[in-house]
Design a protein that fits this description.
- The chain has about 400 residues and is α/β, with parallel strands linked by helices.
- The protein folds into two domains: about 220 residues, Rossmann fold; about 170 residues, Rossmann fold (3-Layer(aba) Sandwich).
- About 45% of the residues lie in helices and about 15% in strands.
- It has 15 helices and 14 strands.
- Strand 5, helix 3 and strand 6 form a beta-alpha-beta unit.
């Protein structure tokens, strides 16, 4: 098949949507398919082009057999509302125009969020009369409304209307968890039009192993019990409780690895409170993450205490599983069900510093229990969340839509 994939984010960006899209596309190329990705100039999270790239009208490159077309967008840092909205809208326009002008392809796939990327896929599919597979990794506009990223009932109403039109335009929808499937059914999407293909991990990259001595040296981790949060330090993460917990556990290092809209604020607060045991790494190269996970003792998966996040299944769970690290999960709902079902971690109430302290001490003081949890996670990810199998299942869904269109 000839697959046209629209994704606002793509390698060398290392966030969850970029990684999922790249890892799937790489496997589809290896299976003998032609894959073209329309994306933007890599710039997350600071809104500046990565080294070696320029924000041109159109530029092309090849990555592991994937044809990557990068269109111009209005670049903006990953914070604020107005400038990021301009970023999203510029991608919607430029990606739609480029996709409509593409040569032959068999199917359009688009991933959302960001929301307007899904709309671009709908537009291209409609103009070119090709089947459209929509991937949903977050429910907009609920998710941005919940964290206060957009205000005004008028704006929310417009987005909700566009959301429903986008769902109706899709021949099939792939979502990353059962919680999302339930949300889509509530919005009137037929159950037979939805497939669940979770996030997962590349088991050849994320694997158990020795801690990195260079990372220990770099971040001052020698001789410390390390709790690692690895991911976007954004508006949804709710990591203020980590600072509160750090005041009660001076003998533990809380390593906050990544960048995002709240990183500077959290770091400033930690400095003001004299919390030297809270370490911020800033943005890291994607290739450093597996070694970093092997270096921490426990992984923290955490979001704000909002009902919407009960449907979320963060990809960092599966990377922790794959590296045999026990998890403290502060996300009630589907995420905690997966972790507890695997017997691979402990659940705490979101944004509860006291519960976080108790969980940290419990795992620190019982290393054998922590080891068993890590081993359990590895067994579960091998059985159910192997990226190879998940990419193959996604390809089956796409193939079914192309065949249906042909019939």
């Amino acid at each position: 098949m000839r697959l046209l994939f629209l994704s606002h984010y793509f390698k060398p960006e290392g966030n969850a949507p970029a990684s999922r899209t790249y890892e799937h596309c790489k496997r589809w190329v290896a299976a003998g398919h032609e894959v073209t990705v329309i994306t933007s100039c890599p710039n997350v999270p600071h809104g500046r082009p990565y080294r070696g790239y320029r924000n041109r009208l159109v530029q092309e490159e090849w990555l592991d057999g994937i044809r990557v077309i990068r269109v111009w967008t209005f670049l903006a840092a990953n914070k604020g509302t107005i400038l990021r909205t301009l970023n999203y809208l510029s991608y919607l326009f430029c990606a739609s125009v480029r996709g409509i002008g593409m040569s032959q392809f068999d199917v359009v796939i688009a991933t959302s969020p960001q929301f307007f990327c899904g709309l671009a896929g709908s537009i291209v599919s409609s103009f070119r009369r090709k089947p459209f597979v929509l991937e949903i990794r977050d429910i907009w506009p609920e998710s941005i409304e919940a964290v206060g990223a957009v205000g005004g009932r008028g704006a929310i109403g417009i987005l909700a209307w566009l959301e429903k039109r986008m769902y109706r335009s899709a021949d099939h929808i792939v979502c990353v968890g059962d919680g999302y499937r339930r949300k889509l059914i509530e919005r009137g999407v037929p159950v037979e039009a939805i497939s669940v293909i979770t996030n997962g991990a590349d088991l050849s990259v994320y694997a158990p192993g020795a801690a990195s001595e260079s990372l220990r040296e770099r971040f001052g981790l020698h001789g410390k019990f390390v709790i690692g949060y690895v991911g976007t330090l954004g508006m949804a993460c709710g990591l203020d409780c980590v600072l509160d917990a750090a005041e009660s556990t001076n003998d533990v290092v809380y390593l906050l690895a990544g960048d995002g809209a709240r990183r500077e604020e959290l770091q400033r607060m930690a400095v003001e409170r004299g919390l030297s045991q809270v370490v911020f790494t800033g943005q890291l190269e994607k290739e450093e993450i597996p070694a970093l996970l092997r270096t921490v003792d426990v992984c923290l998966v955490h979001l704000r205490d909002l009902p919407l996040f009960q449907t979320v299944l963060p990809s960092k769970i599966f990377e922790a599983f794959a590296t045999s690290k026990p998890i403290i999960v502060g996300v009630h709902g589907e995420a905690s069900a997966v972790v507890l079902g695997a017997e691979a971690g402990v659940e705490i109430p979101a944004e509860d510093a006291g519960a976080l302290v108790a969980a940290v001490r419990g795992l620190r003081d019982d290393p054998e229990r922590a080891r068993r949890m890590g081993a359990n996670g590895r067994r579960v990810v091998e059985a159910y969340y192997n990226r190879d199998a998940l990419a193959a299942r996604f390809l089956e869904v796409v193939d079914e839509q192309v065949l249906n269109q042909a019939v």
